[in-house]
Amino acid sequence: MTWRTTLVVGVLSALLAGTQPGRAQSTVGAEDWAAYKRAFVTAEGRIVDDGNGNISHSEGQGYGLLLAYLAGDAPQFDLIWSFTRTELLLRDDGLAAWKWDPAATPHVTDSNNASDGDILIAYALGLAGRDWKRAELTRAAGEIATALSRVIREEEGQKILLPGATGYGRDDRPDGPIINLSYWVFEAFPLFATIAPDIDWETLSRDGVALLGRSLLGPSRLPPEWLSIRTRLRPAEGFPAEFGYNALRIPLYLVRAGSTDAAMLTALRDGMSPVPGQVAIVDIASGATKESLADPGYAIIPALVSCVLDKTPIAEPLRSFTPTLYFPSTLHLLSLSYLAEHHPECLT
After folding, report:
1. Each residue of 102-150: pLDDT tens digit?
2. Assuming Cys at both sites, which of 72, 152, 247, 312 could form a disulfide with 26, CB separation 3.0 to 4.6 Å?
3. Is the peptide bond prior to 197 cis by the omega test (within 30 degrees of 0)?
4. pTM
5. 232 exposed, middle or buried (CB, 10 Å; 0-12, 13-18, 19+)?
6. In total, how many domains does the chain have?
7. CB 132 within 8 A of CB 75
8. How does 198-222 read in b/e, with b if 16+ C-beta sit within 10 Å?
9. The domain that contains 252 carries what CATH number?
10. Is 172 among the catalytic positions?
């Protein structure tokens, strides 16, 4: 068995073991959640991406729903869901329009979906419906999860998740299909198997892990954010050939899904964090650092991996939450929530 095959099998065994994180209530602390709401959630339930022109998007609404569930805040969950349902779930296929701009009329400025946003929304609805005994949320979760069949394809002998319904497929571009491995929210798939059983979520998960194992490219052994899978794996044309902001989520998603595979997680941790306490945006071809990120919401991700692998305590500055920008703040709370539930020893 090759190193790469061992890596894929090790991750897959954890992901398909049925782990469904988030069942425990209030793993996001009340003070942290209150600070997050003050910084990023409007009175209408809109999650504001203040690092991206104060727009909102399906990803942010999904994260907001998930964090509200993890905080045990049903009223805020309902508010965020109301905005999401009325302002983004406007497409005819059951998926959400991805981009909402408060400065534009109409506010939806791009009606294509973003598959990670749809997964996050459906996952949060499914968790809340299951644990709060609310059938209407479970039903909505199942409808969105079922609609994701529109972006799941069989390509090159594997099941893939397209980033959106249009623009990424074989017929859309010369190097299509294009995928983004950070869109595989692995922790959601076991739950989806119960609410949208007509889709083969197990194969999608298995093939996503296999693609990840095969896409560790360049000197730093990291996956490109946007990846062409046509004929061979390579950075997609027209996108920066880099391990970028979206890709920072990959090890977090693996850990939250239950992976403890040392080979995969070590490769990602070491490649993305060449300098202790920082995370790097990395050029795939050269392995050079294009940008260093010291925000606690990014820095906690390699620290989370070290906790999972060898019980290394989380550095004290990363244990406390202070909002910075929407995206790293979201990743920070998701990391702290996982640690509080599964590895509290790393927080002391």
Report:
1. 999 999 999 999 999 999 999 999 999 999 999 999 999 999 999 999 9
2. 72
3. no
4. 0.95
5. exposed
6. 1
7. no
8. ebbbeebbbbbbbbbbbbbbbebbb
9. 1.50.10.10
10. no
